[in-house]
Design brief:
318 residues, alpha/beta, CBS-domain, five-stranded parallel β-sheet, four-stranded mixed β-sheet
Amino acid sequence: MSKDISIAKEVLRSEIKALDALSEHLDDRFTDAVSTCFSARGRVICAGIGKSGHVARKIAATLASTGTPAQFVHPTEASHGDLGMITSEDVVLALSRSGETPELSDLLHYASRFSIPLIGMTARAESALGKAADHLLLIPDVAEACAVTRAPTTSTTLMMALGDALAVALLDRRGFKADDFSTYHPGGKLGAMLRKVSDIMRGGEDIPLVMSGTRFDDAIDVLSQKEVGCVGIVDSDERLLGILTDGDIRRIVRERKSFETIDQAMTRDPVTVTSDSLAHSAVSLMSARSIMQLFVISDGGFCVGILHMHDVLKAGIV
C-alpha cells in the first residue's frame, strides 16, 4: 500500500469515527433547531467565516433547494450594511468550530437585539457562540484529520453532515416531494430526471390511435405512418383498450396468422403511465418491462399521449 493511500484511509477512518460520535450525541436540541427553522416565517440566514463560511453557503443552498428559504450572509459584509438583509422573521444559523470567531460578533449582537432566533453550530458549548445561541448544535470537539496544521477537515465534514441532517429533517416535516424538488431543479441532468411525462410525451395528432373494430390492415397503416412502433386501440370515448406493436406484427407474420380486425390481434390492458408521473419513473417502468413505448392516460383511462424511449433519450433522462 502506498503512503498516499495509507494517509487517505487514516483521514477517512477518523472522519467516520467523528460522524459516528455526532450521530450518537444528537439530542432534543437538534429537534428544537428543526422546529425553529420550520416555524420561521422568513429565511434561514447561514453565516460563517473561512471554511465554515463555505459550509454555510452549501447548507443555505441545500435548504433552499429542499423547500426551506435560506440565504448566506457573509459576517464581515453584515457588519458593513448587510445586517439589513436579516429581518425579525428570519432565523440565523451561525457556524464556527471554536465559537470565538470575532467576525461573527456583530451578527450575534444583532440577533440578540432584535430577538432573532440564533442557532449555533460549534464544537464548544462555553464559547461566545455557544452561550449566545438559543439552540445549540454541538459537534464533537475532535482533532482535525490534518494533525500537523489543524486545517479544518473533520470539523467541516461534521458541519456539512449536520447541515444535511437539518435540511432532510425539514424536508420531511414539510412533506416535500420529488415534484416539489423538480420545481427548484429545472436544469441539468437532475432537472431532466425530475421532468414529468407530460413535458416530453407526444400528443394530439402524433398519437397512433385507431378505433376498436378497425380493419387490421388499416391499423397497420396507422402504425407505419406514426413511426413510434405501435398503435393504440381505443373505444368511442378514446379510452385505451389495447396495443399492437412492431414485435407483435413480427410474431403474427412468423406464425402465419391473419386477422380481420385489430381487436383480434391487440394486447389488452397494456402497461400505461399518467401524464403527471415523473419521467424517470416511466423510464424505470419501460426498462423493467423491456418495452419501448408507453401510452399516457388520464385518471379516467382516456389516452392523452404516448412516450417513446427515443423521446426519453433526446430529453437526456437516461
